Please model this.
Amino acid sequence: MTQETKIIMGMPITVEIVDSMAGRIMDEVFAYFRGVDQRFSTYKPESEITAFNQGLITTVQLSAEMQEVLTLAEQTKHETNGYFDIRRADGTLDPSGIVKGWAIRNAARLIEEHGVENYFVEAGGDIQSGGRPADDQEWKFGIRNPFDESQIIKALAPRGKGIATSGTSARGQHIYNPHHMNNPIEDIVSLTVIGANVLEADRFATAAFAMGRAGIHFIEKTPGLEGYLVDTQGMATLTRGFGAYVTP
Model:
């Protein structure tokens, strides 16, 4: 079993591979994340998204990866009634709300292409896992208490599903309701979503958090998703099927 953590995309990214051949695969996975950062970071003046936002390249000149992400963003905007929107107030695009889950999913696929069955990839609290850990039990991951990150309030066994959490405890107010840009989300502090894979969990977690307290009802009504919301009073609301993933 090999586990490594590196700071890429402005956050810790952890990869654990239980099977053999881990070293070579680790290098490839972390190189992939660095490439994603180079292409999609709005903070890098040389990135593709920066060049596009500055009008230096046109839509037809975008890479296949960028076109895929922008298409996914537009699809998510449609599926969430506009609560997911990568267009900033100044008209530029910031795909960071979908890139993390997309990149984790792709990294997991890269690992699986090497024949690895037992692994996990975690970036900034969003997780994709496969198979089993070295003790041959189940992968278990915790939801951190948004009021005290040293505490775990729920332990989850995703069983191959993806987990993503959106909230304000770590990064402050960075998610906004696109329909009311000047009104910060003040009624909830954390929303964890379980989806078919981490991309599905991540894109809908971002959108549902932007809905505020109504977000958990959106997750409840969306097939294939389960969610766990914590409001500003510390009260939790969970979807009917969420309990199936809770473990001691």
